[in-house]
Amino acid sequence: MVNSKYCHHCYRCIHSDDDHPNEMKENRRIEKWLKQEKHRLKREIRILLLGTGESGKSTVLKQMKIIHGENLDQGQQLEELRHVIYFNIIKGIKVLIDARAKLAIPWSNKTTDIQSKADLVFRAETNNLITFEYFSRYTALIDLIWNDAGIQATFHKRNQYQLSDGLPYLFGNLKRISSLTYKPTNQDLLHARVPTRTVLEYSVQYKGVSFHFIDVGGQRKQRKKWLQCFDNMLTSILFIVSSIEYDQYLVEDSTINRLDETLAVFELIIHSDYFHHASIILFLNKTDLLAEKLKQTKRIQRSMSKTMDNYDYRPQLINELFPEYDGDATNLQQVQQFLLTLFQQRRSYRPLYPHFTTAVDTENIKRVFNDVRETVLHENIKSIINLQ
């Protein structure tokens, strides 16, 4: 027989609000917060930046900050910002010195014992914070080495090794960067290379909707971190491609063409269950560098200079590496269209929203991002309206 102290709804009576008012109040508060958070997340446009190493993902994220009125030096000490620039310059010249030796390209300067100076620079320390005082010891030597014709010939063969694309800009501004009063500008930091080791995020409001960008590392060993960003709240994938990588090879495996690797990664993403609900935006990036590369190739095709003859330098044409290309191997628009076609062929049934971009050009990214915002909003407008 049931004890008369309790009715037949004994569980409800025992656990009534009157017996545990504080606990139930807290539960209701948490449930309300979770509901509001779910509502907020559904109104948030979450864009995951993907692509292989050196494609320009981090540069695009930096541009998002600049476009929306932020300086890239916010929250960082001047010495730390200088270190980033100094590190890129010293690391870059060391890569060039090493590549020149491996490619057996002779120095052109025979009067200043340039090899001993290069050896001195090559031993420069880059593992610790690089101060102005330390960097200033090497600036004159770096300038001498960079302007040597042998190093310039090495630079022109950079498809055979890994070199940051922003180095010509930094070397071109070496005098300003070497000043005691130097403070890195947004352009300096856009051209500086810092590999993404952690997940970086940035949010901005647009037309009452929050755009949340997520950037992860592009190197092979960083890709496992991408899994942390796969969830049902993801709105779009922004896949970024380096347009100049068709004649380059992976640092991790020198037998694999970087464009082939990028296409394989793109195809994997397109067909992944994690991304079946996300729209796919494609940035074929580094248009400026591709245009420069094709112009240089055209010049060399027309007339090989004596200097280049001596160094046996001849760039590989895109049709030599991708025989299916039947256009003019030095025409920018035709090469770009071919690259786009390669990605379109792998999209299956998925819609693809392509753009040709130059990530270091703020005005270009601003125009493209305006289009991207409208595209993403249009794709998600129904779900946003349903939440009103």
From TrEMBL:
Q: Does the keyword Nucleotide-binding apply?
A: yes
Q: Where does Mg(2+) bind?
A: 58, 196
- UniProt: GTP binding residues: 54-59, 190-196, 215-219, 285-288, 359
**Residue ranges of the TM segments:** none
Q: Which Gene3D superfamilies match?
A: GI Alpha 1, domain 2-like, P-loop containing nucleotide triphosphate hydrolases
Keyword tags: GTP-binding, Magnesium, Metal-binding, Nucleotide-binding, Transducer
In terms of InterPro entries, this protein maps to: Gprotein_alpha_12/13, Gprotein_alpha_su, GproteinA_insert, P-loop_NTPase
GO biological process per UniProt: adenylate cyclase-modulating G protein-coupled receptor signaling pathway; Rho protein signal transduction
Q: Tell me the protein's name.
A: GTP-binding protein alpha subunit, gna-like protein
